[in-house]
């Protein structure tokens, strides 16, 4: 019988921990952590995500600011907003909601954010520090995955972890994090992707699988061994005549066939997803406390 890794429940517990920590800071006369977000254009998914971040900030006692810019904003105008927040001592963390419109250079925007305010963990300085084991802001999804493994006491030392997907946001960083000399960590990690030959040969050997490739129900029961731990990062909307909205959310894992062979498994929705915003809150709190960059 598998154990369901409940990201919704875990994220609620962490939010309460953060809320109590912020309340104590305020009780001692300190200022609330402050998260700023820049939102360009009117993309529905981005609007929803930023609104969820605003709500989460309110729930834990953070201050929050959202700067809304029109889709035709120029690169220099956007960078000016980033530089202004960089210089604002009242703001502890800054995120620029991605993706940006096609005419804007995302990488230049990311590199303009000061590393000490880069609570998304995308700046090359934070990525580099993470890679060599220095304190760094770790991007939200990999940080959330590690926290789920930690809180559910999933044994990782000496285990073979297969990561499916090599994105800069999830696949690459989580492969590095799970190979570090820490817990969770100390895994032997295989990073697989769309060009990997005979992927099933790797997944059948895996003690832990991180599926982050964005293909609905890609990983099936016949691709895994008994007792595997499966972390499903993917989320894909598929048309369905069985739901009121006309859509159903699926992960990268075919839950019905993989779960019976698993020891631990995350659901979609309600697994990794809820951990992303809470990881962002945690990074913002660390920034306010000057933990990563004293």
Brief sketch in words of this structure:
The chain has 294 residues and is α/β, with parallel strands linked by helices.
CATH architecture of the largest domain: 3-Layer(aba) Sandwich
Uncertain regions spanning at least 5 consecutive residues:
none
Q: In this structure, how is the largest beta sheet organized?
A: 6 strands, parallel
In the CATH hierarchy, the third-tier topology of the largest domain is known as Rossmann fold
| Shape descriptor | globular
Class of the largest domain, according to the CATH hierarchy? Alpha Beta
Number of distinct beta strands: 11
- CATH homologous superfamily annotation of the largest domain: NAD(P)-binding Rossmann-like Domain
